[in-house]
Amino acid sequence: MKCAYCGRELAGEGTYCSERCRKRGEAATHLAARTRIPFWIVTALAGALLLLGIVFWAAGALDKAFWFIGGAAALEGLILVVLPRGKGGANTFCQIIGGVLFALGVICIILWR
Ligand SMILES: [Zn+2]
């Protein structure tokens, strides 16, 4: 067994290695449950923007396409930073990916405004 929060090997039975991990792990689980719906709404919005971008791309309107694709990346990046998915290390990884996506998206919007 591994601790569900920090990933350390567990000596005995249980989900968490310590009281501290149990508290933090449960708080993270509650937060994930509470933020699931807003997270998926924003992800769906970003998906719609991305689709619009692809439609503009196919139509040959590359300026508009980059703007929408950039907007989608910035939106999804922002939500990954604000409401990261996963626990412990995965959470940080999510936020790094989100930050990179957000930066790329903003660059796209600025360049193809
Ligand atoms: Zn732990």
Percent strand:
under 5%
Structural class: mainly alpha
As a percent range, the share of helical residues equals over 70%
The total strand number stands at 0
Radius of gyration: 18 Å
Query: H/E order of the elements?
Result: HHH
Mean pLDDT comes to 90
Distance between the termini: 52 Å
Number of helices: 3
| Main beta sheet | none
- Shape annotation: elongated
Uncertain stretches of 5 or more adjacent residues: none
What ions, cofactors and ligands are bound? Answer: zinc ion
Overview of the molecule:
The structure is a single chain. With 113 residues, the chain is mainly alpha-helical. It has a domain at 37-111. 74% of the residues lie in helices and 0% in strands. It is built from three helices and no strands. The longest helix is centred in the middle third of the chain and has 40 residues, at 19-58. It is elongated. The termini are far apart. It binds zinc ion.
In short:
This protein has 113 residues and is an all-alpha fold.
